[in-house]
Amino acid sequence: MTHYTGLIAHYQDRLPVSATTRLISLGEGNTPLIQLHHVPRLVGKDVTIYVKYEGLNPTGSFKDRGMTMAVTKAVEEGSQAIICASTGNTSAAAAAYAVRAGIKAFVLIPEGKIALGKLAQTLMYGAQIIQINGNFDKGMALVKEVATHAPVTIVNSINPFRLEGQKTAAFEIVDELGFAPDYHCLPVGNAGNITAYWKGYSEYASDSATHKAVTPTRPVMCGYQAAGAAPFMAGKMIDNPETVATAIRIGHPQSWDLAWNVQRESNGWFDSLTDTEILAAQKLLSQFEGIFCEPASAASLAGALRDIQTGKIPEGSNIVCTLTGNGLKDPDTAISQCQDTHPVTIDASLDAVKKAILDAM
Ligand SMILES: *Cc1c(COP(=O)(O)O)cnc(C)c1O
To answer: Can you tell me which atom of ligand 1 is nearest the CA of 325?
Structure first.
């Protein structure tokens, strides 16, 4: 067995690196593709659902795929500092890869609207955190402006190397299954990830060396937003996005045109879910499959389940849902959803423990 050293090394012939490029890696990628066993039974439909568990990347989200590539290229081009606006996960990833590279990271985050785990990581990695009185979209606009005045490389998903790294998730899925799924479901914020997956599937499908001669060679792409932050449903940018799923609390998606292209080319669609539906899917996944993702990630499964139920996604389909981030990122939202299952407190005696077990059987 060879030592796995990250997705750039693994897919280097499909990425913009050369033999002499210094790879900035934390061993990202190669995440589990887990088939759901109980959820399809619960919905009573004959479908095969896999989840791509991106929460097992080094900083706990898929952002590491893009960040290894963006920071590798920034360093190759001689950059000494990177900058991003973030709802949390991009800042954690940028901070970690900057440490790995030995360069500086500046991150703009919306004050009070970033999940606790993401803040903890970013603080620990030692990034320069700039909190702003404004949302992600405001931060993004500021980052774009400041990057024209200061010697910093933007590592948001408008950096094309981010999407290059992220497309490898589609490679992994096809490599593992031996075919592309019929449907691929993703949460959509800036829409970089849905664009990157489509790029990955498309590159594999057009390459006869890896083309495994199955149909369809590319999935229908389904993008799901939170109802309070659903510019793709509105058909226009929105100004005050709100959702419990802070990772997709975005009103001005940066990959707007690219994502509409994906929708058209794949015959896919966008749809939206209420926060209640998103949180219900998050809990379902935890309680019936043992898989803990953050709220934004659960939008992919929530959307898929609704579309399976209505028949929009037909029986017999192979479906992949990307779980973009780890549930541990947002402990507050998780705990607040489990008020009815608060731990019981008892005496520290054998009798009391025995009674507690018997009561619960
Ligand atoms: C960044 C992020 C998203 C949204 O991805 P986009 O590429 O912005 O559409 C979804 N879920 C999580 C957990 C994220 O960190």
So the answer is: 13
Q: Is the peptide bond before 216 cis (omega within 30 degrees of 0)?
A: yes
Q: Do domains 7-60+162-336 and 63-159 have the same CATH topology?
A: yes
pLDDT tens, 176-223?
999 999 999 999 999 999 999 999 999 999 985 555 554 458 999 999
The ligand 1 site (C-beta within 6 Å) comprises 61, 63, 89, 157, 187-193, 247-248, 294, 296-297, 324-325
Q: Ligand 1, from 31, 51, 56, 61: best to mutate by most atoms within 8 Å of Cβ?
A: 61
Which DSSP category does 88 fall into?
A: S
Fold assignment, 63-159: Rossmann fold (3.40.50)
Q: Which CATH number fits domain 7-60+162-336: 3.40.50.1100, 3.40.50.150, 3.40.1110.10, 3.40.190.10?
A: 3.40.50.1100
Task: Give strand ranges (E) for the chain.
Answer: 33-35, 48-53, 81-85, 104-110, 128-132, 153-154, 183-187, 220-226, 269-273, 318-323
Express each pLDDT in 333-354 by its tens digit. 999 999 887 788 999 999 999 9
**What is the CA(121)–ligand 1 centre distance, in A?**
17
